[in-house]
Amino acid sequence: MTIDWNHFTPLSSLAGGVLIGVAAALLALCNGRIAGISGIVGGLLRPQRGDLGWRAAFVIGLILAPLLYRVLAPLPEIRIEAGSGLIILAGLLVGVGTRYGAGCTSGHGICGLSRRSPRSIVATLSFMAAGFATVFVMRHLLA
Amino acid sequence: MNLLFALLSGLIFGLGLILAGMANPAKVLAFLDLAGLWDPSLALVMGGGIAMGSLAFALARRRTQSLLGLPMQLPTSRQLDRRLIGGSVTFGIGWGLAGICPGPALVLLGSGSDKGMIFVVAMLAGMGAFEILERCSVAAANDKHTHGKTA
Questions:
Q1: A106: closest CA of chain B, how far (Å)
Q2: In degrees rounded to 5, what are phi and psi of residue A3?
Q3: How far is B56 from chain A (nearest CA, A)?
Q4: Nearest CA-CA distance, residue A74 and chain B, Å
């Protein structure tokens, strides 16, 4: 294993992580909800009365975040290497997988691990392992 | 009031993702590429998030109502089953293909990225497929149940 010290951003990544934790704390303590993005978005596709507003508000906040960030500082680099076909496949897998697995990096990875939920520990280990394996196959076996 | 806090939470979450580098798929893939030139930054994102989250959920766990008087709706399921693991593995494969998970996908959409928009549409289609499959399996189970009763 070779560490890429040139691209390693410990401070901003730690600070960003803390901000994500603050957002999750706010939603849990004020709204009584888990900040799990796939669950929040998925719930919009299963409309229940009185349950749509907070979901839509949270999603709008996420979408507006880069616009607000731009007011404060220039947006950091965004680079997407995958082509459109791969993006579509990836999006479909992420959509189906997160709903069957009942969570993603936020719901299981941040909130679930914070709650020491056994389900979230298993889910996080599963998607991390699959992510590592997929990148290994794509970059070192197929490329 | 609860809408305002949900909006604020979404905004802060998104700012955190951008600052952390999670909104850059190339950086996410560099974290997932253990055998290549490895960028460990995202481990610190999880570390920071979980440190804050642990404090918050230690408080949240003791409450039956939120600070705004809403019911606390924290997960209670403890089942470790094929759905959980199979779904998570499927998600992990998709994550590894593009370096995008649901939160950053919405941030990319907001940043005006074309590929971000394509990803979000595909992700919504995947979630919609899940809803349809779920409704079919529930209907099939009900059908079986009622037939079982009449027989």
A1: 8
A2: -85, 135
A3: 5
A4: 11
Rounded Cα distance between B133 and B119, Å, is: 21
CB contact B24 to A (< 8 Å): yes
* Domain assignment of residue B111, given as a range: 2-150
With an 8 Å Cβ cutoff, are B107 and A68 in contact? Answer: no
Q: Tokens representing A34?
A: 């888990």
Q: What are phi and psi of A132, to 5 degrees?
A: -60, -45
CB-CB: which of A59, A91, A109 is closest to B123?
Answer: A91
**Domain range list for chain A:** 10-141
Closest residue to A64, CB basis, from B17, B23, B110 = B110
In the A/B pair of chains, how many CB contacts fall below 8 A? 506
Closest chain B C-alpha to A15 CA, distance in angstroms: 7
- Cα Rg of chain A (Å, integer): 17
Give the separation between CA A140 and CA B36, rounded to whole angstroms: 8
Q: Is A52 on the interface with B (CB under 8 A)?
A: no
Tens-place pLDDT, residues A32-82: 999 999 999 999 999 888 899 999 999 999 999 999 999 999 999 999 999
Would you say A36 and A111 are in contact if contact means Cβ atoms under 8 Å apart?
yes
Count of domains observed in chain B: 1
Q: pLDDT (tens digit, 0 to 9) for every residue of chain B, 151 residues total?
A: 899 999 999 999 999 999 999 999 999 999 999 999 999 999 999 999 999 999 999 999 999 899 998 999 988 888 999 999 999 999 999 999 999 999 999 999 999 999 999 999 999 999 999 999 998 988 888 887 776 555 4
Give yes or no for B74 touching A (CB within 8 A): yes
Do residues A93 and B41 lie in contact, with contact meaning Cβ atoms separated by under 8 Å?
Answer: no
Q: What is the predicted ipTM?
A: 0.96
